[in-house]
Amino acid sequence: MTEPADVSKQLDPPPAKTRDPFRFRLIGDINVAGVSVALVGITVAIVLGLMRINSAQKALGVQIQSVERKVEAQGFTLTSPVEGSSVNLTDIVRGKTPFPAQNTYLVITPLETGDDYVQDGPIKINSGGLWTAHGRFGTGEVGVGQKFLVRALSTRSVLPAGKLTDVPEDAIFSDAVTVVRR
Q1: Could you give the strand order of the β-sheet that contains 130-136, starting from the edge strand earlier in sequence?
Q2: Rg of the Cα trace of the chain?
Q3: Over residues 94-115, mean pLDDT
Q4: Alpha carbon distances (Å) from 56 to 45, 62, 66
Q5: pLDDT of residue 67
């Protein structure tokens, strides 16, 4: 005969598993803390990536504006005097600008010193972008026989007449012409 089975062993529930409060059962075990850390990491990476894209877009925008201004500046010219011509102590300088809404100044540079001098201005621009200004090439006998670089400068800034110490950040120079003082 067989011995009766021990009933007390059959009634005992299986030992309880200790459960991690940060794990739950969905399809297998998922660690909630691990998933949270991963999501935070992904979010941070996305935010940093978007910040870099935004920064790159701004830098590209500045570069595009710079290129556009340089292309426009190709139409920023002096029409008189011409390269290598002779000028008097005071002489008329003419030109054309594609920036009629900005302040345009005549800038004369004695090549001997390399100092830029803003002439009286800003220059009045007509509706076609043409302008005329009076330039001063030296003082009295100082400057006779010397070479001068003549340019126009366009900017949103207001510049005082005299030695140009700080070139505005948005400054665009016209083409340059070298002349000799009679």
Answers
A1: 77-80, 90-96, 130-136
A2: 39
A3: 97
A4: 16, 10, 15
A5: 67
Residue 167: CB atoms within 10 Å: 14
Backbone angles phi, psi at 2, to 5 degrees: -95, 150
3-state SS, one letter per residue, for the chain: CCCCCCHHHHHCCCCCCCCCCCEEECCCEEEHHHHHHHHHHHHHHHHHHHHHHHHHHHHHHHHHHHHHHHHHHCCCEEEECCCCCEECCEEEEEEECCCCCCEEEEEEEECCCCCCEECCCCCCECCCCEEEEEEECCECCECCCCEEEEEEEEECCCCCCEECCCCCCCCEECCCEEEEEC
User: Given this model, what pLDDT does residue 33 score?
Assistant: 74
- Which residues, listed in sequence order, are joined to residue 104 by a DSSP beta bridge? 154
Structure tokens belonging to residue 30: 């998922």
Residue with structure tokens 């302008």?
Answer: 131
Task: Answer yes or no: is pLDDT of 25 > 60.
Answer: no
Beta pairing partners, 103: 155
Write phi, then psi, for 140 (nearest 5 degrees): 55, -125
